[in-house]
Write a structure and sequence with these properties.
This protein is mostly beta strands. The protein has one helix spanning 57-60; strands spanning 23-29, 33-38, 42-47, 49-51, 68-71, 75-78, 91-93, 100-101, 114-115, 123-124, 140-145, 152-157, 161-166, 191-194, 200-201, 214-216, 223-224, 237-238, 246-247, 263-269, 273-278, 283-287. The protein is built from one helix and 22 strands.
Length: 295
């Protein structure tokens, strides 16, 4: 009956023939989250705030295998390893208003195949879905903003497409050791889409993305930074928009797989001259007046 507020998770221990949907456990966790467990392995969570980390549900539910998790509206995020190593977990349902998925939240959930990511989600840790080899459809597996440019967003999906969106400039670090938010998942990036509104590709932005094959750049782009695509040995497809006015030193250094002639360097020389270098080594200088003489 509904009047029962607590069912010990061991109350129906070894009752293996219970029909799916039969309530086998019920209670409160950390005084603000209610949970209910059914015989079919469905855990339903309600309450307000961010779910605790370190996967407490195995102990809370008496060691029962989670197959499905339903998180109800009011819960806004999950912490570090909230559901990690639940190897039988297949499906997760998140509510509108959900905001964040923490580090290694679903780490090692080998059977996870279906999870909805609401549009409200703004942050997914880069390793939230590490080891989730069963995901069947493209979903965001990492996303966030730049620490210094909150108007610029990035998102990596489960097929390896990194999308950068927003208005204005990406970070433009002066040295290669700068930590872009996707630094730890560079090897997972296979395609880059920079959307309209972004005006630059920062220095070193995609350096050492060794599995990057293609990049789509917008007409709003005016500058590609130094070593932006350096050592992307698999890069074969990129078109430089006419809007780009400068390409920094080494932007395409080590891009040995470029299949078509691509502009790899571009800039101004003095006030009236422009230069452009393509991937076949052709340097074109144009404009009016004299070239500067070296001394």
């Amino acid at each position: 009956p509904d009047s029962i507020t607590d069912i010990d998770p061991n109350a129906f221990y070894q009752c293996g023939n219970l029909e799916e949907g039969t309530l086998v456990g019920k209670g409160v966790y950390e005084e603000k989250f209610r949970w209910e467990m059914t015989g079919g392995g469905t855990l339903t969570l309600s309450g307000e705030g961010v779910l605790p980390g370190n996967s407490p549900w195995y102990q809370v539910t008496g060691g029962r295998d989670l197959v499905r998790v339903i998180i109800e509206k009011g819960i806004t995020g999950m912490g570090v390893r909230s559901f990690s190593r639940n190897e039988h977990l297949v499906k997760v349902e998140l509510p509108d208003g959900f905001l964040s998925i923490g580090e290694k939240a679903f780490y090692g959930c080998l059977s996870l195949a279906d999870i909805n990511i609401p549009d409200s989600v703004v942050t997914i840790s880069y390793d939230a879905f590490e080891g989730c080899s069963g995901l069947k459809s493209p979903i965001p597996v990492a996303m966030g903003t730049f620490e210094t440019k909150e108007n610029i967003r990035w998102k990596l999906d489960s097929e390896g497409t990194l999308t950068i969106s927003g208005q204005g400039e990406m970070d433009d670090p002066p040295y290669s050791g700068y930590s872009y938010p996707w630094n730890f998942i560079r090897k997972d990036i296979k395609k880059v889409i920079v959307e309209e509104g972004i005006i630059n590709v920062g220095n070193y932005a995609f350096q050492d993305c060794v599995n990057l094959v293609s990049a789509e750049l917008p007409q709003s782009l005016t500058r590609i930074g130094e070593y932006a695509f350096s050592r992307c040995a698999s890069l074969t497809d990129i078109e430089i928009p006419d809007s780009v006015e400068s390409i920094g030193n080494g932007a395409f250094e080590g891009c040995t797989s470029l299949g078509t002639v691509t502009t790899v360097g571009k800039g101004t020389w003095g006030d009236n001259l422009w230069w452009e270098l393509d991937s076949e080594g052709t340097l074109v200088i144009r404009g009016q007046g004299q070239m500067e003489e070296s001394r």
